[in-house]
Amino acid sequence: MLNYVRVHIDKKLFSVSEPEAVMKRADDVLYHMDPKKPEDEELGFNTVAGYNTFLQHNGLWKENAPRIIVTGPMGEPSGLIAKLEETGNMVYPIRSMRSFIQNHGIDSVRPSAIINMAHGRMGEPIVDYLAKQNIPLFSPLNVNRLVEEWERDKMGMNGGFMSQSIVTPEIDGAIRPFALFGHYKDEEGLQHAYAIPERLETFVETVNNYIALQRKPNSEKRVAIYYYKGPGQNALTAGGMEVVPSLYNLLQRMKREGYKVDGLPTSSKELEQMIQSQGAVFGSYAEGAFDRFMETGKPELITKEQYEGWIKKSIRPEMYAEVIAANGEFPGAYMTTSDGRLGVARLQFGNVVLLPQNAAGSGDNAFKVVHGTNAAPPHTYIASYLWTQFGFKADALIHFGTHGSLEFTPRKQVALCSNDWSDRLVGALPHFYIYSIGNVGEGMIAKRRSYAGLQSYLTPPFMESSVRTIYRELTEAVKTYNNLLPADGQAVLSTGNKDALNRASLAVKKLTVKLGIHRELELDSLLTVPYAEEDIQRIENFAEELANEKITGQLYTMGIPYEPIRITSSVYAMATEPIAYSLLALDKLRNRADGQVEKHRTLFTQRYLEPARDLVTRLLADPSLVSDELICRITGITSDELAKAHEINKSRNTPQGMMAMMMALAEEAPAEAKTHADMSGGIMQADQSVRSKRNSISESMKEKMKEIAKGMNPEKAMELAKKMGASPEALKKMETGMYKSHAVGMNTLAKDTVTMKTTSRGKREKADSDKFGGMEAMMKAMMSKKKEYSKEEMNFALAVVEVERTLKNVGNYKSALLESPERELTSMVNALNGGYTQPSPGGDPIANPNTLPTGRNLFAINAEETPSESAWEKGKQLADNTIEMYRRRHNDSVPRKVSYTLWSGEFIETGGATIAQVLYMLGDADIHYLFVGEQLQYDVAFRVMSLGTQLKQIIIFDKDVKRDKRDTSSIYFDEFLKLGKARQHQAEVDKRIAESGNGDIANILYTSGTTGDSKGVMLHHSCYEGAIKAHNERFPQLGDQEVVMNFLPFTHVFERAWSYWCISMGCQLAINLRPVDIQKTIKEIRPTAMCSVPRFWEKVYSGVQEKINETTGLKKKLMLDALKVGREHNIEYVCKGLTPPALLHMKYKFYEKTIYSLLKKTIGIENGRFFPTAGAAIPPAVQEFILSVGINMVAGYGLTESTATVSCENDFDHVVGSVGRIMPHVEVKIGENNEILLRGVGITHGYYRKEAATKAAFTEDGWFHTGDAGYIKDGHLFLTERIKDLFKTSNGKYIAPQAIEAKLVVDRYIDQISIIADERKFVSALIIPEYKLVKEYAEKKGIKYASMEELLQDQQIIDLFKERIDTLQQQFAHYEQIKRFTLLPHPFSMERGELTNTLKIKRNVLNKNYAAEIEKMYEE
User: Fold this and answer.
1) How far is C-alpha 710 from the geometric centre of its chain's CA atoms?
2) Residues 899-915: tens digit of each pLDDT
3) What element of type H or E holds 535?
4) 3-state SS class at 20
């Protein structure tokens, strides 16, 4: 139009040529660049034969060469195709893989490998084909940005691209998520995607190496196997696996398969002895053992020339410079010979070599050394992998067992580049990782960071715990109590019955205290006060849960099935509860189960769990017992009701109407047609008026159907009709009309009056249209209204089908457990032959039995199937329970705000039950609009929209999130903002703002759970308003000139409330996202203010003390004098409001400009003015030190329930040992047992959905129980102990563990400590030493040791700690002093649940994790 106006109306002299007539592009399947005209559009081919002719004419045909298919939309494949052809392959570029398989074109190609430049799944049909034909699937990545930006990025890839190009292809069984394509700018600044040259070389070599495994005889293949082993005589370890017997079984299997495995010992025991002598790992401290190994262990010795030659091939110069900086020049200080060679420990059996996984770093923190250090790996580590590649010349690499350290070496998380260590050390080797199904999270790290094809193995067998007998007496006492309770709906008890109930409650209490359960449940132990009904219910359920707990038995040995008794116990663990819960769900629908069953777990056990176990016993003996008759008998339904349930379930899962037609056509459509269908939102975005015309078929649609149907055989026609949802009657007519013909043109279905059939004699005849029905008739049948069922019918059918499924699974589980060991070995051998490993979900086989059988390639999350149907139903039930409980407690109102913590591991294991609960609650609470961040959140939200929620729209923050092609309603956040520009709803907005108030809940925060379960603390806007007002009055000096550092999690009330206040004051906030980066970030930001926890300052104090102890002479004297001067100046004078003497002030100013300023600059706080600190007790020595050097650390006290600050110091209003003065608008009084009680506007209104806990937390006149003891002196608040933490020894003495811990943790040899004393004869302690100092002490004393465990058991080390502890605890009463202690070889950690996110110890977790060590301290 514009061109027409320009030429004919404006009469311009220049214009573009008129467009040529539109030509339909060929629906070609294959394509290739024209070698003679490389700049022209690619040539298209509709047949494999035509393409082969093209290859022959252009010199690209290679007889017997490997054939590789390249497909997918996410790369520019010309460079990849050319390089594959250049290295001896024939390449078949495909536009639509699904069509190519369905049209059987792939069968004539018979590819050796498929390369999919993926953005999403290929789909189950292709997975089935790959498995059947045993074809490996590669998924190289497009980093989708400039190469230099990607190389600098620490993450590598995230958001929608990571989901669609890495996570989703894993479900298809894809391997090698290797960054291959990147963006480059042209001269005009435009970006184009090309294969990255350096990466292309490695990727093509990798593919060729996998294909070589298919063609090379097993006898010639060289295989390197890495096992993980700790230092010294430590056993070989792997998650749940007996490593040596398992490794031995694999080697034997390889030998039977024709691999050259020479010199294999006659037993696994002999193999273990060989590994201990020749395949050992040593700590840098084990000098004697190391010397013997270098003489007798037969290590591979590598020269400097060899090593540096391999380095030049693999490692960039800047990376190697980091190695030298961290470890010195080759060969380093470890595993070296006197003539400068480097030893690599290994055992070689012919063409198979076994190597220990060397330490990827140095230090005493074994967890960190394995799971990732920031430093470059040492020479020994690098040399081992480079020798495997270039010295041994391996054809394949295997990591044996969960898990090694390669995948945790530094840098990118995914989409690695050539600066990443695991990328370089794996190189182009085919890599396989034998991995536990129970550790899918770290398995994904291995898959994505070391390019491993996972080979899953079984967890140890499950057993039922044997503690039921321990709780038998308690269970009987609980039953007695429950029998005295009034039934639902009955009147309250009489006085006599109340007395009997109280006596029964006290009987339960006595047994509860005797068994120690009260500590786990945070219940009191006063034997004169009965427990409430709610408490006894918790005790009952806790004991019953433990009695039914599943535990693992012996370790698993690969290749050997569980013992029959262990198979039985594992199937019991996997099948009993699902059957029980499915029967309970069915009974609830029929009103046959009252609320008492769910309320009292013992009732559930009696009525459902025990009968379910009996069922499992019968079905284990004879799985064929599962029949319709058994299902009807178990569920109490008729055969007709069962048939109806099947019909309803089939109806629920079968697409109907237009959607069915589109899905069917999409599968049958030619490549180009499918591409157009995928690219447009056509049907889904149609006008509502068009949608309503469901029975009308356009002429273009009919033409497309004719085109699709050409040459289709009768079976295919019937299959398509079924997919389209044709009724049984229509299908019967079609089948009748076909007679027994061999080929019927599907195009005749589009004709309304006549169809053609071919008789067995080959004659073509006309068939009456009535016999076939015609396309129009079939489409009408398909578009007819789907039979509708009521919600009750649907729920009942789902419950019946679930019972049926759980019963049938008993036999399936048994078979899977029996088959898995052999499948694991077979799958590993198949992988070594360059084959395809079928994908499977990962996780606990009890929670997700679909992980069985093993011997498959694990994936993490399938968003298309999450939440699962069963998870959705569980989530609905959980949400209903939550809402119902809230309604009972809040006058039938629904909760306005609910907080959930979502864990990826739990998401995987439960099939998404938690997210299902959240999303169902959104619907039940009438939520219409949902905001999501990244791809996974969006995928799950979109799936759930069709499962019953009332969501109208999803708003997406991240622009990288890829919307589902069926999604017609979701919008991105910037689009959302545009909707408000017209302000068309401003009146309603104003109305709602006017109706809101500070009585609304701001957020629900969960307490840290240091002594038990977390509780959700409700904080209203009024709480924050009061807290901000109080802080403004106490600290008017804070303003917009401040640069504030945030590093605590925002789930912590201290950081959250502090940040709200800082924002209100106009401060600039700098947020540290990764805790491990705090030391680096604080030096970049140089903050003026920062809130922190005492642990931060304890580390500063310990570091300075260590520096002082290392220093000698004048320097040491100056440092000690600086601390003495600072203490006198600041604490004795300034903090007391006194003027220091002139000479003292002059000395202080000198040290302030030298030693103090140097310390602050080293930390990164030289600009600091204000450092509030709370969250735990501050050791007085630490507080005194920090104040002495002029750091304004403001000690404070607060709780989540008080909206943070209750008291705090002001600038230089410090009293060592106190937590400051009471804040404005906060009332404090000291109650019974010196407990600190609070009242005020900032105090919580209670705990979310915990009415009993809320009632217990407040006195009748509204004072909140803090659980902390303390006193007030001269206006300052002092804390003495945590009342809940008070331990009562078996001698009746009370001690405060925190006071003892605070005193001892200041010792430079002690890093962490936990006091043990509750109901014990004396006080003991678990101690985490400062490992570095202990090692230095051992070196000075000449103590030899092979591991940290061995060193800490040395009597000289124990005596050192005993002497230091005795010195520090002299001021304690005799009964408070530590009598025994255990030195632990690894620190407490958040990963094991032992620390909160603010580094406070969780005593209940420590008591469990170190139960054996604790009991040993109390042995006579």
Assistant:
1) 49
2) 666 666 566 656 666 66
3) helix 533-547
4) coil
